[in-house]
C-alpha cells in the first residue's frame, strides 16, 4: 500500500447522514456511505475513514458501525483489512454480487420462459452490436472454447449440465465485451437467469436442439471474425427467436407426455 493511499484515509470526510425512522441505523449508515462514495467520485482503492473515525463522526455504537461496513462489504462496495496498514477502502463491485440478487428476484417473481426470451430479444442483439468492436482474439478463443465444450457434450465426454452451461457461457463472453455498462450488466443478468434454469432446460433437452445451437454459435462467431456487424445482429436475433420457439414447443410436448403418464397411488 502506498503512502499516498494511507494518507488519503485522513483526507476523505463523509457528510453527516440524516437518520430515518423506517430503517435500521446500520442499513441507513451503509446507504449513506454508498451515496457519499458516488457523490465524491471515489473509486477502487480509495481509502475511507476507519471504524474509529466513523464512530466519532456519527456518534454511533461500534456494533452499528461494524454492521454498516459489513453490509457494504457483503455488497462488494468496500473491502476491509486488518493490521497496521489496514482499514476500509472502496472496491470494484464484482458482477456476481449484483446478478445473485437479481437471480433471487426473478425466482420470487416467477419469471417464465417467455419473460426471459422477451428480455433476451430486446437486449442481446444490441449487446452483440456494441461488443463487435471490442471483442479481441481472446474473446474469439473463449467463444471457440465454448463451442468445443458443447461438441464434447454431444458425444458424452462432458456431463449434460456442463454442456448446457457451456452453451450459456457463449453469450456471457459476448456480454463481457459490451462497452455499455448498463447493457452489459443486463445481459449478464440474463445469463445468470439461464444458469439458474439449467435443470429445467435439461429436462426437455434434445440432441437435435443441441446441434442447432452449436451451429448457430459457429455462425455468430464466424460473423465476428468476418467483421460483419449487421450479420452478427441478425444471427443473434434469429438464434434467440429460434431457440425460444423450439424451447416452448419442447416444454409443451414434455408437459403433454408427463400428463399422459398414469399416476401411481
The CATH H-level superfamily of the largest domain is GntR ligand-binding domain-like
Taking all Cα atoms into account, the compactness measure Rg is: 24 Å
Provide the succession of SSEs. Answer: HHEHHEEHHHHHHHH
CATH hierarchy: architecture of the largest domain: Up-down Bundle
| Unreliable residue runs | 1-10, 256-265
Looking at the structure, the CATH topology of the largest domain is: Four Helix Bundle (Hemerythrin (Met), subunit A)
| Spatial strand sequence of the major β-sheet | 1-3-2
Domain HTH gntR-type: 23-93
Protein name: HTH gntR-type domain-containing protein
Organism: Phyllobacterium zundukense
Keywords: DNA-binding, Transcription, Transcription regulation
Task: Explain the overall architecture.
With 265 residues, the chain is mainly alpha-helical. The chain has two domains: 3-90, Winged helix-like DNA-binding domain superfamily/Winged helix DNA-binding domain (Arc Repressor Mutant, subunit A), CATH 1.10.10.10; 95-258, GntR ligand-binding domain-like (Four Helix Bundle (Hemerythrin (Met), subunit A), Up-down Bundle). The protein is 69% helix and 4% strand. The chain contains twelve helices and three strands, in the order H-H-E-H-H-E-E-H-H-H-H-H-H-H-H. Strand 2 (78-81) and strand 3 (87-90) form a beta hairpin. Residues 1-10 and 256-265 have low confidence and may be disordered. It comes from Phyllobacterium zundukense.
Amino acid at each position: 500500500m502506498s503512502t499516498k493511499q494511507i494518507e488519503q484515509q485522513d483526507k476523505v470526510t463523509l457528510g453527516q447522514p440524516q437518520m430515518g425512522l423506517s430503517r435500521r441505523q446500520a442499513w441507513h449508515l451503509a446507504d449513506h456511505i454508498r451515496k457519499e462514495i458516488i457523490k465524491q467520485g471515489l473509486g477502487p482503492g480509495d481509502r475511507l475513514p476507519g471504524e474509529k473515525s466513523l464512530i466519532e463522526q456519527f456518534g454511533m455504537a461500534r456494533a452499528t458501525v461494524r454492521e454498516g461496513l459489513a453490509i457494504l462489504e457483503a455488497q462488494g462496495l468496500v473491502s476491509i483489512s486488518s493490521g497496521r496498514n489496514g482499514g476500509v477502502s472502496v472496491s470494484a463491485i464484482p458482477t456476481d454480487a449484483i446478478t445473485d440478487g437479481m437471480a433471487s428476484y426473478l425466482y420470487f417473481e416467477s419469471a417464465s420462459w417467455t419473460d426471459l426470451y422477451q428480455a433476451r430479444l430486446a437486449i442481446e442483439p444490441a449487446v452483440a452490436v456494441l461488443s463487435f468492436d471490442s471483442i479481441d482474439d481472446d474473446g474469439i478463443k473463449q467463444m471457440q472454447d465454448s463451442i468445443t465444450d458443447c461438441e464434447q457434450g454431444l458425444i458424452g465426454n462432458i456431463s449434460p449440465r456442463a454442456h448446457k452451461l457451456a452453451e450459456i457461457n457463449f453469450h456471457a463472453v459476448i456480454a463481457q465485451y459490451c462497452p455499455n455498462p448498463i447493457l452489459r450488466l443486463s445481459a449478464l443478468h440474463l445469463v445468470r437467469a439461464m444458469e439458474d434454469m439449467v435443470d429445467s432446460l435439461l429436462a426437455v433437452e434434445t440432441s437435435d436442439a443441441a446441434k442447432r445451437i452449436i451451429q448457430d454459435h459457429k455462425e455468430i462467431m464466424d460473423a465476428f471474425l468476418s467483421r460483419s456487424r449487421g450479420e452478427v445482429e441478425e444471427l443473434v436475433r434469429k438464434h434467440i427467436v429460434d431457440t425460444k420457439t423450439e424451447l416452448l414447443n419442447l416444454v409443451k410436448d414434455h408437459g403433454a407426455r408427463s400428463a399422459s403418464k398414469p399416476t401411481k397411488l
